[in-house]
Amino acid sequence: MVQGHVNLNTEKTEQWIQEYVDGWVEFFKKQTDTGKVADYIPKLEEADPNSLGITIIGKKGTEIRSGDVEHEFSIQSISKVLSFITACMDRGIAYVLQRVDVEPTGEAFNSIMHLEVKGHQRPFNPLVNSGAITTSSLLSGNTSDEKLEPLFQLMEKIIGRRPEIDIDVYVSERDTSMRNRAIGYYLLEEGYLESDLGVTLETYFKQCSINVTTDDLARIGLVLSNDGIHPETEEIIIPRNIVRIAKSLMLTCGMYDASGKFASYVGIPAKSGVSGGILAVVPPRVRENELPFLSGCGIGVFGPALDKQGNSVAGIKLLRHIANSWDLSLF
Amino acid sequence: MVQGHVNLNTEKTEQWIQEYVDGWVEFFKKQTDTGKVADYIPKLEEADPNSLGITIIGKKGTEIRSGDVEHEFSIQSISKVLSFITACMDRGIAYVLQRVDVEPTGEAFNSIMHLEVKGHQRPFNPLVNSGAITTSSLLSGNTSDEKLEPLFQLMEKIIGRRPEIDIDVYVSERDTSMRNRAIGYYLLEEGYLESDLGVTLETYFKQCSINVTTDDLARIGLVLSNDGIHPETEEIIIPRNIVRIAKSLMLTCGMYDASGKFASYVGIPAKSGVSGGILAVVPPRVRENELPFLSGCGIGVFGPALDKQGNSVAGIKLLRHIANSWDLSLF
Amino acid sequence: MVQGHVNLNTEKTEQWIQEYVDGWVEFFKKQTDTGKVADYIPKLEEADPNSLGITIIGKKGTEIRSGDVEHEFSIQSISKVLSFITACMDRGIAYVLQRVDVEPTGEAFNSIMHLEVKGHQRPFNPLVNSGAITTSSLLSGNTSDEKLEPLFQLMEKIIGRRPEIDIDVYVSERDTSMRNRAIGYYLLEEGYLESDLGVTLETYFKQCSINVTTDDLARIGLVLSNDGIHPETEEIIIPRNIVRIAKSLMLTCGMYDASGKFASYVGIPAKSGVSGGILAVVPPRVRENELPFLSGCGIGVFGPALDKQGNSVAGIKLLRHIANSWDLSLF
Amino acid sequence: MVQGHVNLNTEKTEQWIQEYVDGWVEFFKKQTDTGKVADYIPKLEEADPNSLGITIIGKKGTEIRSGDVEHEFSIQSISKVLSFITACMDRGIAYVLQRVDVEPTGEAFNSIMHLEVKGHQRPFNPLVNSGAITTSSLLSGNTSDEKLEPLFQLMEKIIGRRPEIDIDVYVSERDTSMRNRAIGYYLLEEGYLESDLGVTLETYFKQCSINVTTDDLARIGLVLSNDGIHPETEEIIIPRNIVRIAKSLMLTCGMYDASGKFASYVGIPAKSGVSGGILAVVPPRVRENELPFLSGCGIGVFGPALDKQGNSVAGIKLLRHIANSWDLSLF
C-alpha cells in the first residue's frame, strides 16, 4: 500500500516497481484456490491454475514483467474489442452502432433471451456473444481469412509480429460451441448478420483462437491508453473516436457480470477472456503524488483460474491491488 | 502533472468560455422539439420544454452560468447518488453492497422482472428504483426525516444552504407512484428492506422532491470531481472510496437505458432525473492541448424536455458538444 | 341416453364404492411424506400433514365420504373460480375477459414478470394471482363485504349455509402477503383495477379465507358438473356459458405449474388451494363399461401436505387413482 | 340456432346436417378479411385466403364434407401431435416425458427464452417448437426417413394411403427456418437431443411438410376421439393412455397463444398449423338433446387465412359455431 515520490526515469525506481510487482504476483499466485480453469475445450483445460503473469508497459517506455509471462494463450473474448475496432475502422462507427448497441446488460454474456424480451432490437453491445458475432459478420470479406486480415494487420502493427491462430483451440471451439450457433441462427433470422452464418462463426471462432502473451496484451493496452497512437512511431493506428468507444465499452461491459464491480473497485477499462487473459488500459491521470504510470500504460495479465463470472481470480486481485496502490482508477 | 497553458484565472479566458457556452446554449435550446416534459405529476408538467440552463464550476474557481440557471427543480433520480453516498457513510460500503449490487442492467429503471428472473438476488444497482428504494431503507433513523438528515447535512455543506423539499412534488409522487409501491412490496417480501416500507417509500419520495438549481448540481459535481474534498475549505466531506464507487456507478448506470451511449459519446460520470436535471462530474485530466477545466469541474444542467430514455434532450446534446470540444471524456 | 349398468341407487353398489374409496384413502394417507404443509401463516401450519379426506357427490344422489372429511379449512385459491364466476355473472363475460385473459401461463402463480415482459397486457388468467386480484376488483360494491355478497349468496345456495370467513387466516393473509400487494400496485399502475386497491386486496384476502369442508367443495363441483343447475332444485344457479369457461380454466390452469400434468394424467377440471383443498368436477361421460359416476359428480378433497407445485400430494394421487379406475378423464 | 332431435342414421338427417354446414361454410368464407396467409415460404403464400373447407367424420359413419375439401396442404405443426404419439409408442411415455414436459406456456411457440429463464429445464411441451424438435430427436432411427417410418405407417393405417412429403415445402422450411436451427443448437447444448441435430431438424422439417387433406385430418381426429381404436377395423392403432395425453395436450396447448380461448369458447382438443389446417377431436358426450355427433367424431378444417396467433381465422369461427350449436364442448 505504499505509493509516493517515484521517479520513473531512474533505474532505481524501475527496480523498486519491479520488486513491488514481483512480491504481489507471488502473493496472489497463492490465492487461486477459489478459481477453476475453463474446461469446455481440452486446450484450456491443460492450463496450470496456479499460473499468474503480468506485463505493464508505460507510455514513457518503462516495461515491467513478472510471473508467468512466457505463456502463449488464446485471446478468447478479448478479441471482441479488436473485432469491434476493426469493424468500426472498416464500416464506420455509425454503421456498426446501427447493428450493435453499446449498452451494458444484466444478462449473461451468452444470453439469447434479451433478444427475445426486447423484441427485434439489436444486440446490447459488442462484448456479449450476440453482439460480437454480429460484429464479426460486419467485417468485409467473403472468407473468414479475408474478414480477419485487417485485425491481423492491426495486431501486427502493435505487437510486432503477425499473430497466429491456435488450430487446436479453433477446431475445439468450432465443434463444441452449440450456444454460439444458436445465437448465430437467432441473429440470422432477425436480420442482423451481414455475411453468411458459417463464415461469420468461422471468423468468430478464429478470432477467439489467436494466440497472445501478456506482452501482446500490454502493448495493445498501451495503444488504447495512448488514444490509438503507436507510442514509438507516433503513427495513428486507430482513430481516436473509435478508441474512445472501445475503452468505454471495456469499462461498462468488459468483465462479464462483474463489470460494475470491476469499475467500482479497480476503475480502469479492461476486457477478460475465458483463457484467463485480461487486457487493461490505464489512461493518463492527474494526481498530486508522484506515482508510477500516471502518464498511462497498458497491462496484460494471464491467470487461467477463473471465478464464477469467468474472470481470472488472481488477475483481478492483482489488478485491484496495483490500481489502488498507484491510484490508477479513472474515478 | 501538466495541465495546459490556459490560465482560467484571467478574465479574458473566462469571457471567451462564457461566450462559447452562451452560443451553444442558445443553439441547443432550439433543439428540444423531439423531447417531452414529464407529465406524470402536475409540477413537472408545468416546466417550459424550451428551457435550458447550465452551470460549470471549475476546481480553480471559474464559474460559468448560461441560460435558464435561475430555476429551482426537483432533484428526482439524481438523489439516488446522494442517498447511496450517505448510506455508505452511515453503514459502511460492505454493508450496503451486500444489499445492493453495482452492476449495470439492460432492464428499465423501474423494472421488477429482473428480480424475478434472477431469483432472490439483490437489486442490480442503487440507481435503478429497486436499488434506490433498498438504499433508502438502509439509512438510519425511524422516520423519513431522521433518515434524510445526513443527506440534508451533506448537501448543506456543499451548496451552502439547507435544501428544501417541494411539498407539491412530494405529495404527487407519494400519491401516484404505484410502480414504486409494487417494487417496495416485492423487496419487502424478498427481505431486502431494513426499515418499515411506509417510512422507506416516504424517504424515497422526499429525497426525490428536494429542490435544486443547476448551481447546486455543479457544486455537488465539483466535490465528486475533487475526490470528496470541499474545494474551498479542503474538508473531506465524503470518503474517497465512496466517491469513487459513486462516480463509477454514474458512468455505468447513470443515464437510464442510454448510459452506455452517454459513456461512449460523452464519457463522464453523470446522473439524470426526470425533471430534466443532470449532475455531471469531470475528473482532472491530462491533455496536451490548452483546454478549459482540465483540472476538473462539476456541471449542473437543467433542460426539462426529455428523450424517450428519460434524459434531457438538449442537456445531453450540450454536454456532448462541450465534452468533445474540451476533451473532457475519461476515455 | 343413459349408460352403464351400474345402478348407483342400490345399497350394494354404494357399499362397494365406499369400501373401495376407504381402502385407497388409507393407502394414500401413508404417502404424504414427500409433501409439506404450507407454513407462511400460522393457521395453515397447524394442519396435520397426514390428513386426507374426500367427498364425492354424484348427480343421481350418491354420496361417498372417506377419511378426514370433518375438517374445516380455508378455501384459498379455490375461491378464484368462484370469484371469476360471480364477476362474470355481475359484469358480463365480455367485460371480465377484456380485463383478464383465459390463457394458461408457464410462469409461477405469483409472477409479476409476465406482465412486464408482455408489456401492458391484461393478466394471463383469473387463476393466477394477478388475474384473481383484477377479478376481485371487478366485483361490484364499495366495500369488501358488498363485493363478496354475491359470492356468499352463490355459495349459500350450493352448500346450504352461509359461509364464514376464518378471521385468523384473513388477518394473517392481509398482514403477510407482500407479493400480492406488489402485484396489486403493479396492476393499479397498469390500469387494470376497477376498485380501490385496499378494498380489492381486502376482498381478495377475505375470499381466500372462507372456511369450507370437502362436502362443500363436492357440492360446488357437482353444480359445475351439472352445467350450473342445482341437482335437487333444478334451479339455474350459474349460467351455462360461464360454467363452461370456469371448467375450461380449471382444466388448463387450475393446478398451478402442474396443470398440464394433471390434465394429462387425471383429465378433469380441478382447482387446488394452498390449504390442501381440491375442487374437482367430473362432467357426464359416455363409457361402455359399467363404472360409477358416469353421469357426473363433484369431488372435494382435503390433504394439507403439499408438493412443490403447491398441490395436495395425497389428494392428487387419490384423484389420479380414482379417475383412472373409473375412467373419469374427459379425454 | 336450435337443432335437436336429429337421428343420424337417417338419410334425411344427414342431408339436413350437410345443408347446415354448407350454409355456415359459405358464411364464414366471407369473414377471412382479418386474416393473412402465411408468407414465410412460397408454397404457403400461394394459398387462396378465401378458401375454407371442412370434413366431419362421425363414429357411426356419417361423413360431412363442405367447401374446399379437395386441397392438399402441408400438415405443419399438426404433425407435432403425431410425432409425440409415435415417440411415446416407440420409447414409452415415461421416457418421452422425462425429456419434454406437458405444461402449457404463455410464451410464443418459437420461444427460446423460456429455456433460458427456467434454466436447464426440459421444454414446456411437445407442441411448442423446442418440445417438438426434442420429440423428433427421440424417434428411433439414424436417418430422418427411418425416424419418420412409424409416423408414416401410423398415418397410412388411418388415412388409407401412404402420406407424401411436399418437397418444395420441405426444401423451403429447411432453408429458411433459422429460428428452429437456433432452438436446435440451444437444445443440443442443454443435452436434450438424442440424435444428431442435422438429422433431427431434417426429421422435423419433413414431418411438417407431409401433405394432407381435411379428410385425412378428420380420420385422424376420429381415431383420437375413439381412444386410438380404428372405427372400422376396431384395431388398437394407438394405446389409449397415449391418446389421452395427446388430447389433453391439444386442449391445453394446441392452438398457440389462443389455446385457452379456444378451450373456453369451443372446448374440444384441436391442433392448428400455419398452412391453415386444424385437426379437431370430439370425444363422445352425454347430452339430453339428440344432437349430431354426440358419439364422437373427427374434424379436419382448411382455411389458410390466419389470425395473429397463427390459427385459421375462418376455421376457428366455423368450429366455434358448430361446437356451440351441437354442444360439442367437453365442459
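qc> Chain D has two domains: 11-71+213-325, 79-207.
qc> done
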